[in-house]
Amino acid sequence: MACLGVFVGYLPVTTVAVSLPVIQRALDASTADLSWVSVAFVLPVAALILTAGVFGDVHGHKKVFQAGLGFCALGAAVALSAQSVTQVWAGQALLGVGAAALLPMTLALISHAVPDPRERGKYIGLWTTSLMGSLAVGPLIAGAIVEHAAWRWIYLVPIPLSLLSMVVAAFVLQESTSQVERKLDWPGQITAAVAIVALVYGVIEGGAGSFGDLRAVVALVVAVCSGAAFVVCERRSPSPMLDLTLFRSAAFTGSALVVMISFLGLIGFFFVLSLYLGMVQHLSTLESGLQQLPVTVLPMVLGAAVGRLMRYLSPRVLITGGLVITAAAFLALTDVGTDTSFGSLAWRLALLGLGLGLAFPCITATAVSSVPHHQAGMAAAGNNAFRQVGAALGPAVLGALLTSEAVGTLPGHLAAAGVPDPTSGEILHAVDAEGLGAVAGLPLGRATGPALHALSQSLLDGLQLCLLVSAVLMLCGAAVAAWLLRPAKGGGPAATAASGGTRTTEGTAVAETGRHRHTTAGAAAADRD
């Protein structure tokens, strides 16, 4: 049931990502609108994942698990009937609420059902495979549907899966709660949610227009004030949602920064990649999904091997090395063009998958290993929250960069393509009003071909800038990992985490979210055996 739950929760991530060009054409959406399609899902996950864990601990993991499935079904139904991009946002947001509940609850269910940490490792491995499997098959499902039906039907699949899972869960799952007393932290929840939403809104609005615009300025000011209020609330709360003393550990702080920085670059890259495959290479949704398989399949294949590598190499080495390889893959992608072949793009994406497969399985294990045992669950949840904040900012930041660079270079490419000045003026006016996707729908006569070529070149300019930014972000993450994950003098939790002394896998560490216990080095090693 946990594997099915996490599969349902994360299916919309790549299913929607590869469908963005089709959604843009169908709903006349701008690039900023498309950013919100992706962000609308990730924002609730980032804002609510910590609270969902507390809700499960207090009211029961089974109840919150079923509620998460219900939100997934409701969100998919709303998006399935969408007639506007605003309704798609609403559906995506409800799906995000469901995913926020399912991620910690599925792990808590496993932790309750399999109390023996030696036995639990097998099930955590299956859970991880299910999560990655949803990301891998999502593009294929979307591609097959869009080939034969309207784009809205990509939202059909989660509805019966969610409802069936809810019914089965009612009969086969036992209720469980945390053995450690916890209370709901409403001040912390509200201030955190306001800070995250305001930050992402300010970035998107500033990128679409100007960061001097009143709405962008107000949003960013609200984000700063809410963030400060969150810190005050958590310091004073008797039962904080996120205990700020965790940040006294350099390893926990380093892993949080690394996962936020790297996911900002990674999820932002997937957003611009879907636009490149659809609007520059003019691939179908199914072809786009097949093209992206190396990125999702390779980390699945590497999972077991990386677990064995952690016996001989510290997480610091694996995380740093993986992020450097990921940065190299982004740099290798900067020379792609309108006619780049499937094979030429595939090896670059496979290199990206290799880097991700080496780095990401170690990050949460490092965060959890760096704190006292009774805080292991909160550390895992906090690390996941930082991951989702980066994922929410990724499409906003890189989408804004893509739009800015493409719009800025479009006049020059139109002139180079020989498009007459009056037609160029009409195109630029449409782009200012409706976004880059509006060019494909303009009746330009003989100028249609040159105009679309100029648009492709402008999008390539934007893609190259985004790839460079993503590469720099990955290198920054690698530098943070190399610096903060160093073994601490005199031992202690930070030293253990950074040196690889605590042999936990990411799944085993995260599983402790439900029960707030941390496995010993010997038990976690037995998990892998």
What is the gist of this entry?
The chain is an all-alpha fold and 529 residues long.
Question: Can you tell me about this structure?
Answer:
This protein is 77% helix and 0% strand. With 529 residues, it is mostly helical. It has two domains: 2-174 and 241-528, MFS general substrate transporter like domains (Growth Hormone, Chain: A); 186-240. Helix 1 runs antiparallel to helix 7 (158-172).
Structural topology:
Elements: H1 2-17, H2 20-27, H3 31-59, H4 61-80, H5 85-113, H6 117-148, H7 158-172, H8 186-208, H9 214-236, H10 250-280, H11 285-291, H12 293-309, H13 315-332, H14 342-369, H15 376-416, H16 421-434, H17 448-484, H18 493-499, H19 506-511, H20 521-528
Helix pairs in contact: 1-5, 1-6, 1-7, 3-4, 3-5, 3-8, 3-15, 4-5, 4-7, 5-6, 6-11, 6-12, 6-20, 8-9, 8-15, 10-14, 10-15, 10-17, 12-14, 13-14, 13-17, 14-15, 14-18, 15-16, 15-17
- Total helices: the number is 20
SSE string: HHHHHHHHHHHHHHHHHHHH
Which fold does the CATH topology of the largest domain refer to? Growth Hormone, Chain: A
Whole-angstrom Rg: 23 Å
Report the principal-axis shape.
Answer: globular
Tell me the count of domains. 2
Mean pLDDT: 80
Which percent range fits the helix content? over 70%
CATH class of the largest domain: Mainly Alpha
Subcellular location: Cell membrane
Organism: Streptomyces cinereospinus
Keywords: Antibiotic resistance, Membrane, Transmembrane, Transmembrane helix, Transport
Membrane topology: Multi-pass membrane protein
